[in-house]
Amino acid sequence: ATAPLSDFLIMPALALGALLEPVGLGAPFLWLAARGIDVMLAIGEWVAGLPGAVRTIASAPDVVLPVAFIGVLVCCLWRGPLRWLGLPLACAVLVWPRAPTPDLWIGDSGLQAAFVQGREAGIVRPGVRQFAVDVWTRRRGLEAVDRSMEGWTCSRFSCAPLEPSGPVALWWGRRPPTSEQLAALCESAQVVSVRTVVDDLPLSCAGTLVLDGLDYARGGAVELRREGPATAWRALWVSDVRGDRPWSRYGETEGQ
Fold this sequence. Notes:
By secondary structure, the protein is an alpha/beta fold. It contains nine helices and eleven strands. The chain has a six-stranded mixed β-sheet with strand order 4-3-2-1-10-11. Strands 5-6-7-8-9 form a five-stranded mixed β-sheet.
């Protein structure tokens, strides 16, 4: 829709503006090109807002990109009908099975978390570590949405569901929670994330997965997926897939 606008208005106006600018006559043409660019951006924004215009697809495994690249090369470089043998390989990125969607994501240091509901990821702390949230949700093919304001109790240092067996409870204060505060967090969620190091767990945390600053110092961010019993989780830490490199190691734990 914007190609005629670019070909017949913007590009000629830019060329004339650049040509006539040394003699002081380029301003009207540059103004016309600017208005054309504004119209082109408005059209793009309108199209992007149409239903179904943007679709997020989960990332495929690492092996898929080389396979698809080889398929594209065969289709483009091979001569004759046999080149279409590369088409299935080129489409691998679209049809390759994706890994199961995790149930929960907790960001580096436990400062942010998101829980999966269908094709949406509920953000526990809207606006915090938003870049990390956007990268993770796009990678998993999810739409990031703010959690409901109802059904949660949040303070300056923590946020937890009101109903028992909620998805996750966060403590992001730099000081460790008291035994009573930690017990309340464990009673409200299946997974509890504490930014600092926890030395002792209250009895109410039995059967609850508690991650603390020591875990985040070793592994960074984490994805959690339920497996088997209700209290069984499979964790995928950033350190497991990033590797051990001097520039990717995590620092000291907080609260020690």
